[in-house]
Specification:
Elements lengths: L2 H15 L3 H19 L6 E6 L3 H15 L3 E6 L8 H12 L4 E3 L3 H13 L2 E5 L11 H12 L3 E5 L21 E5 L4 H4 L4 H4 L1 E5 L5 H7 L3 E3 L2 H7 L14 E5 L6 H13 L4 E7 H7 L7 E6 L7 H12 L4 E4 L7 H10 L7 E3 L1 H5 L15 E3 L3 H7 L4 H6 L1 H12 L2 E4 L5 E3 L5 E3 L12 H14 L4 H23 L6 H15 L11
Parallel strand pairs: 1-2, 1-4, 2-3, 4-5, 5-6, 6-7, 8-17, 9-10, 9-12, 10-11, 12-13, 13-14, 14-15
Antiparallel strand pairs: 15-16, 16-17
């Protein structure tokens, strides 16, 4: 959910369904205490609760009450004057006052200095200062309090979102609490699941606070975290009567002098993900070097060499090559000449099979996105942040500030599915659909890893998968293969070839066919 969507769910639950807001606050705060209690013994635990003046602070008061009732030693510091506390938060503030919990109202930097030792020395710090409504840079005593909390060695638990983090964009607004765990309510917030926000969240716990599922279904949020169970449910069995023609033929238009490896990685990935046949299309001078590298891959030449290509002749050859193929993977390591650029522009409108475009294929389309107005087949674009910045005429830094919005902007301009690679890869599709991928690791930031993903997407498209399913499954499996490789080899030495070797292990977990066959008599 975005913050605005979550506010609408809260409003509808309170006003339309009739569940009082104070009840939702009670369940939310109790959930925070429950999560802390699952992590450590509460008896004698020294807890500091830092609360703001809004409902996030009210959740903190409830958490303080439940922690105290279960044996913790609790102090509550409110970063606001008491007269600023209103509504449901005030109800719960009065409750802990009536119970005699130690409460202090902090209204100045000097007062915050006086309690810094208590924060630094606590076993657990509950951050209930700033919630999902924050949309401007943190200043004053809140910024000072965040700095102190981040120095504390005790367990840092954020209520709903770490204070200072933008709930939608996942970027710190000046500064943000570096939580060890975050207990968020109802549904995960988008900014908690994307980077850099995920780095501030720690372990994410989603607490059910009683929002009816029917309201969620009515709102139909367009953003989701990919779950392996969804992929497993749609992963097809390999039929006993199947053959290589059953599982599709992928054409990989990739490679050039000095970049033949990109074609090999992409082509082998197509095979590893289950395509029955893969053909590499390269200039003839590159083809000669590829033929013996992977015996399962076929090769075709679309020109004698990259420098002597004729646009019309090369385009016609490539169109003919696609006639007997079911999908095209285009771009890794292709020539970056003006002639190749003209070939790509002429080729795309003539294709009659789905395609995935990556790497230099994307770079050759910079400033030429209008070509997609004339493309009638499904297209998947897989840029990394630098390529995305060039495509949308921005900077890498701006792309990373709001990855979802930027991905959706490219969808709007092209009508394609967009895979914005990186930590927590973003998949954006037509009609505003967005998925966030939870698999993968920093070791995958290595040459050729994107070429493997391109081949995986293409391999699933060649097998006839719907575009949305192919993209989700390929991205998730790519990250999971990387996780398996990192577990075996570590992060620093991981290579793209290591990913290729782990794809079959990922798919084996998903296969729905008993490969043993009937027992012999």
């Amino acid at each position: 959910m975005t913050a605005a969507q979550m506010r609408e769910l809260d409003r509808s639950t309170i006003e339309d369904v009739g569940v009082p807001g104070v009840v939702l606050m009670e369940v939310a705060g109790r959930s925070v205490a429950d999560v802390i209690g699952q992590s450590m013994s509460l008896t004698g635990l020294e807890v500091v609760v830092l609360s703001g003046r809004g409902n996030n602070g009210g959740d903190g008061y409830v958490a303080a009450r439940h922690l105290w009732s279960r044996g913790a030693d609790v102090e509550v510091f409110v970063l606001a004057p008491r007269e600023r506390i209103k509504g449901d938060a005030l109800v719960n503030l009065k409750a802990i006052e009536n119970l005699g919990l130690p409460i202090r109202f902090i209204e100045s930097a000097e007062a915050l200095d006086e309690i810094s030792d208590a924060i630094l020395g606590a076993d657990c710090i509950v951050d209930a200062m700033l919630g999902t409504g924050l949309d401007s840079e943190v200043r004053g005593i809140f910024a000072q309090a965040i700095e102190v909390v981040n120095k504390a060695e005790g367990l840092r638990v954020a209520v709903d979102v770490p204070s200072g983090l933008h709930a939608d964009q996942g970027v710190p607004l000046g500064s943000a609490v570096q939580a060890d765990m975050t207990v968020t309510f109802g549904l995960a917030k988008v900014g908690l699941c994307t980077y850099p926000g995920a780095e501030f969240v720690g372990d994410l716990h989603v607490a059910d606070i009683g929002i009816p599922s029917s309201l969620v279904q009515e709102l139909d949020p367009p953003t989701a975290l990919i779950e392996e169970s969804e992929i497993l449910a749609s992963w097809p069995a390999r039929r006993m009567g199947g053959h290589k023609g059953t599982y599709g033929h992928l054409l990989v238009l990739a490679g050039s002098t000095g970049k033949a490896g990109a074609a090999l990685l992409c082509g082998e990935a197509g095979l590893r993900v289950g395509a029955g046949l893969v053909t590499l299309a390269t200039p003839a001078d590159v083809q000669r070097h590829l033929q013996a590298e992977v015996p399962e891959l076929m090769t075709k030449a679309y020109a004698d060499d990259a420098l002597s290509m004729d646009v019309d002749e090369t385009t016609d050859r490539l169109v003919a090559l696609t006639a007997t193929r079911r999908a095209v993977a285009l771009g890794p390591g292709i020539p970056t000449t003006e002639t190749m650029q003209a070939v790509i522009e002429a080729l795309l409108p003539r294709l009659k099979v789905p395609m995935v475009i990556d790497a230099d294929g994307l770079n050759l389309l910079v400033g030429r996105l209008d070509v997609f107005r004339h493309v009638a087949v499904p297209v998947v674009l897989t840029p990394h942040p630098g390529e995305m910045a060039r495509l949308v005429e921005s900077s890498t830094a701006k792309v990373q500030q709001d990855r979802i919005a930027v991905a959706l902007s490219l969808v709007d301009r092209t009508g394609a599915w967009v895979v914005l690679k990186g930590a927590r890869t973003i998949i954006a599709g037509p009609h505003g659909t967005v998925w966030i991928n939870p698999t993968g690791n920093p070791g995958m930031g290595t040459a050729g890893a994107g070429d493997v993903l391109t081949g995986m997407v293409g391999g699933l498209l060649a097998q006839g998968w719907p575009t949305a399913d192919a993209v989700r499954a390929a991205v998730f499996a790519h990250g999971k293969a990387g996780d398996k490789a990192a577990e075996a080899l570590g992060l620093a030495g991981l290579t793209a070839s290591d990913l290729l070797g782990r794809i079959p292990a990922v798919l084996r977990e998903w296969e729905q066919l008993d490969v043993g066959g009937p027992a012999s008599s």
